[in-house]
UniProtKB/TrEMBL annotation:
Keyword check for Cell membrane: yes
Keyword Membrane: yes
Keywords: Cell membrane, Lipoprotein, Membrane, Signal
Origin species: Collinsella ihumii
Localization annotation: Cell membrane
InterPro entries: BMP_lipoprotein, Peripla_BP_I, PnrA-like, TAT_signal
Protein name (database record): BMP family ABC transporter substrate-binding protein
Homology family: Belongs to the BMP lipoprotein family.
Residues of the ABC transporter substrate-binding protein PnrA-like domain: 38-312
N-terminal signal peptide: 1-32
Membrane topology, as annotated: Lipid-anchor
């Protein structure tokens, strides 16, 4: 388990506190309402993986800094150590714990029952407690955006998807990825595989290599965090195939492998959860993000891999997906 902390003291709150002390007792009640929080995230992968982990960590940092709260993280945490990682963060003074994936649900549920005074935020979570909020992007729209692009750019008529494990959110993406691709090309073939991990980059490399070389896959979409980085590395090494990234904008207009990205605004959802904490309305709630509100969207398309007329058509399809009219 590789741990590292970043803490930022709230200078403004200290200044306010000093002013309150000078003004006692007139503003005592106002000062008493001032409260500082510390948010901590743990993850089985890395915070600089160029994908899922990085997006989640950036959301934590951005929301924490916006509220002038401290923040910290622990990365490369093995599954057997998830519960210990939560306890370590709490011992470090964290009053908010962020678990960036549904795979952490069991560990969080147990910790939330034991620490009713701690706020727990779970990305793609699906359970309710007074001290738990779930952040859930629209997985159906994510799958549709990826599938539509794959269907538009595939030359072989065979596209692939690599999942970490069989999480419900991943299954929803897979179903919609296939449906959207087939709305573009009814004869398209979809190959899927699971790495049984979110942190095994080499497994992603192996799966992608097999899909391209043995199954003629020419477009890959990943839902497996750092495994996706391995899959993209395989495409670069092979000099064949295209990737669709998520949840941040991983490509560029001149990228040779990443055709485009499907974006999830984890920052927006995290800030909403933090506002719930500040307002006292936190718990038993799901904060959602979808294409109609900007919580889900499309990133930069590669001009090398996606022709202008396809980019224009894809933009129109993205609008239909936001409106819920692309797939019946």
């Amino acid at each position: 388990m590789d741990a590292h902390s970043i803490s930022r003291r709230n200078v403004i709150r200290c200044t306010v506190a000093a002013a309150c002390a000078a003004a006692l007792p007139l503003s005592l009640s106002a000062c008493a309402e001032e409260r500082s929080y510390k948010a901590g995230m743990f993850i089985d992968g890395a915070i600089d993986d160029g994908g899922w982990g990085e997006s989640c960590y950036n959301a934590l940092v951005s929301a924490s800094e916006a509220h002038q709260w401290e923040h910290t993280y622990t990365q490369h945490v093995d599954e057997d150590d998830w519960e210990d990682a939560i306890e370590d963060l709490i011992d470090d003074g964290c009053t908010i714990i962020f678990a960036p994936g549904a795979q952490y649900t069991e560990a969080v549920d147990q910790a939330a029952a034991e620490h009713e005074d701690i706020k727990f935020i779970v990305l793609n979570g699906d359970f309710e407690r007074d001290n738990v909020e779930n952040l859930v992007p629209n997985n159906a729209q994510i799958g549709q955006l990826a599938g539509a692009l794959a269907g538009l750019i595939s030359k072989t008529g065979v596209i692939g998807l690599i999942g970490g494990t069989g999480l419900e959110g991943t299954k929803e993406k897979v179903a919609n990825y296939e449906a959207a691709a087939r709305a573009i090309n009814a004869n398209i073939q979809v190959v899927e595989d699971y790495a049984d991990s979110f942190a095994d980059e080499e497994r992603g490399y192996e799966i992608a290599t097999e899909m391209v070389e043995q199954k003629n896959v020419d477009v890959l979409f990943g839902d497996a965090s750092i495994v996706d980085a391995g899959a993209r590395r395989a495409l670069y090494d092979l000099g064949r195939g295209m990737a669709i990234a998520q949840p941040n904008d991983a490509g560029s207009s001149y990228d040779q492998v990443i055709a485009g990205s499907v974006l999830t605004d984890n920052d927006m959802m995290m800030r909403n959860a933090f506002r719930d904490i500040e307002s006292g309305s936190f718990g038993n709630k799901t904060v959602t993000g979808d294409a109609s509100t900007g919580g889900v969207g499309i990133g930069t398309l590669s001009d090398v891999l996606v022709e202008p007329f396809i980019q224009e058509r894809y933009a129109g399809i993205a609008d239909q997906i936001a409106q819920g009219t692309f797939i019946g």
